[in-house]
Q: What sequence folds into this?
């Protein structure tokens, strides 16, 4: 399909549910996400956004923002619509509700990739960092998903995601995580250092080089971030990036329930964000000024056995490196 304008959108992170059933201490959801963003995205708004995005070269729709997508009971319907449009569909989940019924519905709907957040390398650390005593339950769901997927033709992929909890014990954590998650479930995975959620948690962690900042590249990248909720009762708020969780109201650039993608991207707020990044005036953007993503830190990707996975890549589009858009 030819592009409608000079705008190019390759991927949309399109959140279908703003709330979460976990209260993980390393996530702003634990402190209480802004109430206006604790919503489900109505299917008609979802359909409008996907249809609009298809005219700008859209390749991938990820059903995530930072809410738990499996809390939207119609998740498979959203997946199926993305696949009907000939696009790739991915999502991120904590896996608690990924039982046999949910797994089968997602696989049959055609989900391409499911990324499961499992922060905690054993039962004790999982309970502490995921706020739920569900270590064995979720590991079982991962194994069952893989078995079911193989039985249904292997159409979907599942990968694991972990964050280092104590940098001084990094090697131990990697060893334990590989044993208790990667080897146990048979799923590939990736292990990262923690980040500070656009400055929400204050400190710039783990040796990110604070001597020189550069744009993270996201304001100029062909990637759109859309929340399920929005301001003043609206839905489909476009925000600056995924890291604005907990302070989304500061980062709203428009609403796709009432605007088109072109209207938002060419709007004053989006233009201003791009200009400030271009001029490296990050201190004038409240959710950028203390964000650790302004610093180059390839070592934040600690370990992975996912082929081709590299620091800076988008989750699926391996040729989309945000740093190439850092101006």
A:
């Amino acid at each position: 399909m030819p592009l409608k304008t000079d705008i190019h959108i390759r991927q949309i992170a399109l959140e279908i549910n703003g709330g979460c059933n976990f209260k993980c201490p390393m996530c702003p959801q634990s402190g209480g996400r802004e109430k206006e963003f604790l919503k489900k995205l109505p299917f008609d708004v979802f359909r409008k956004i996907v249809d609009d995005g298809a005219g700008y070269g859209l390749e991938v729709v990820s059903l995530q923002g930072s809410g738990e997508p499996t809390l939207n009971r119609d998740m498979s319907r959203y997946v199926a619509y993305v696949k009907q449009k000939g696009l790739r569909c991915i999502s991120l989940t904590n896996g608690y509700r990924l039982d046999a019924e949910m797994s089968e519905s997602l696989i049959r709907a055609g989900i391409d990739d499911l990324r499961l957040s499992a922060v905690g390398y054993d039962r004790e650390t999982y309970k502490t960092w995921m706020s739920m005593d569900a270590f064995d339950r979720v590991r079982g769901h991962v194994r069952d998903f893989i078995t079911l997927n193989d039985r249904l033709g292997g159409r979907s992929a599942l990968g694991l995601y972990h964050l280092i909890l104590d940098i001084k014990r990094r090697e131990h954590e990697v060893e334990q995580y590989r044993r208790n998650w990667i080897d146990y479930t048979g799923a590939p995975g990736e292990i990262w250092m923690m980040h500070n959620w656009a400055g929400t948690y204050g400190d710039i962690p783990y040796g990110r080089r604070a001597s020189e900042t550069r744009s993270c590249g996201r304001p100029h990248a062909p990637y759109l971030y859309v929340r399920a909720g929005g301001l003043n009762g609206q839905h489909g708020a476009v925000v600056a990036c995924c890291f604005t969780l907990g302070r989304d109201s500061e980062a709203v650039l428009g609403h796709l329930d009432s605007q088109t993608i072109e209207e938002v991207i060419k709007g004053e707020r989006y233009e201003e964000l791009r200009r400030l990044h271009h001029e490296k005036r990050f201190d004038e953007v409240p959710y950028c000024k203390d964000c650790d993503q302004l610093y180059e830190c390839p070592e934040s990707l600690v370990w992975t056995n996912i082929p081709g996975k590299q620091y800076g890549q988008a989750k699926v589009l391996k040729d989309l490196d945000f740093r190439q858009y850092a101006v």
About this structure: The first strand starts at residue 11 and ends at 14.
